[in-house]
Amino acid sequence: MFVLHGITKRGISGVETPRKANEHLYHVIALIAGSFLTGFLLSPLLVLSRHIAQRPVRRLRKPQDKQRQRRFLALGFYIGAVLIIVGVIGMWTRWCLGKRDPWLWAIIWLLEGKRKWTRPALLAYWAALGSLSVAGWNRQLARSRRYWPRNNATGEMLVASAAPDTSAGPTQQPEQTGISVVPTPGSPTVAGMTFPLPTLPTLPNLPNGTQVASDLLNAADKHVPTLGLNARRKFFHALAVVMFIPGIAFDPAFTHLSFSAAFALFTLTEYVRYFAIYPFGATIHLFMNEFLDHRDRGTAILSHFYLLTGCAGSVWLEGPTQLLQFTGILTLGVGDALASIVGKRIGFHRWSPTTSKTLEGSIAFTASIVACAWLLRLFGVAETFSVRVGVCYTYHTAADFSTDDTIHGGSGALVRPGGPVRSE
């Protein structure tokens, strides 16, 4: 609700009239609240889908029935989600807009930027970065996975999180990371759920040119270092900086609504992952499993929600200055990432014996945020500010975060509104 409070109290940056702000508010409510409403109304299908996915195939008399049931439940979920989004949520938004079509409003809104092509270009930029990142990580993570066909009768495959090391003997098990992925003679089991995957047909011999290209890619993979868990997670912090700073700098109103759409998309994706909705649940789970650490406890994976909310919070709350809208991105995308890297590599002076936070990491946090804020001012997308006040405020924030982490623990991806620096 803090998003709605920020809109109603301060308006929306880049929205000229109160009427436009109200229309914007209706769509924010439809996106965020609607995503939770969709999960609530479809909860019987979601729970049943997870229950069936957890049943081991080897205990079923007719394993093919499990696949059929999962497909029917997935079809019901997708059709139900479309009906709720288009029917219930769409009709409510239409009523709030005075019987105007919300989908037509969204198309018109998409063309109301500084130029008609700026907002579509921004969407294409975000989509390209997201697609390239996912494709690149799939290539990177594929080096640590191996799929073994086990049961041709049921059309399923076993999934392991890392390739086994055969140097110690044929019986050595693959190394597990994050949530356990335990292969069984019947079907793959991931976090208590079985994820059947279709068996690929036998492929013919590849042409010589294709085979040579495949060999070159495989040889290149052997020389590419495998990134550690911390580097994998911090990559997405850097990705957030590259993606969101142009949007906030040139079109904060459109970025405001886009953050809400991304939050709704994350919520629906988490439904598909946790409840093992066919056919995307297993793929999403195995992908996200590679980025989990000890702080991702519980049933839901919330790290990406924390990162998105931290970056969007300063935009949703609409600070009094342009600089404050960059607070979340600078704190998480730049400060938190550099603090973690510097603290792990050269950090020796810990804030307390019970925390991994170091003084060197906090200094890197402060220096990086103030330097980036100064660059934003240099490029004319932020106001002037006092560097001395900015350094003091940011260092106090870093020390406060370290103290909170010592006492309470935390995800490391939540920020307070207000910003690391204050305008004069």
Overview of this protein structure:
With 424 residues, this protein is mainly alpha-helical. 61% of the residues lie in helices and 4% in strands. The protein contains 14 helices and five strands. The protein has helices spanning 2-10, 18-41, 43-53, 63-96, 102-110, 118-142, 208-223, 229-250, 252-274, 281-289, 303-316, 327-346, 359-378, 387-408, and strands at residues 146-151, 156-160, 181-182, 189-190, 193-194. A three-stranded antiparallel sheet has the order 3-4-5. Helix 3 runs antiparallel to helix 4 (63-96). The longest helix has 34 residues, at 63-96. The radius of gyration is 24 Å and the shape is flat. The two termini are 30 Å apart.
Dominant shape: flat
Count of helical regions: 14
Distance between the termini: 30 Å
Q: What integer value in Å does the Rg equal? A: 24 Å
Could you say which structural class the secondary elements and strand pairing correspond to? mainly alpha
Low-confidence stretches: 1-10, 146-192, 194-209, 403-409, 414-424
Strand content: under 5%
Please describe the biggest sheet, giving its number of strands, its sense, and whether it closes into a barrel: 3 strands, antiparallel
Average pLDDT rating: 74
Number of strands: 5
Biggest sheet: strands side by side, in what order? 3-4-5
Q: Which series of helices and strands comes N to C?
A: HHHHHHEEEEEHHHHHHHH
Helix content: 55-70%
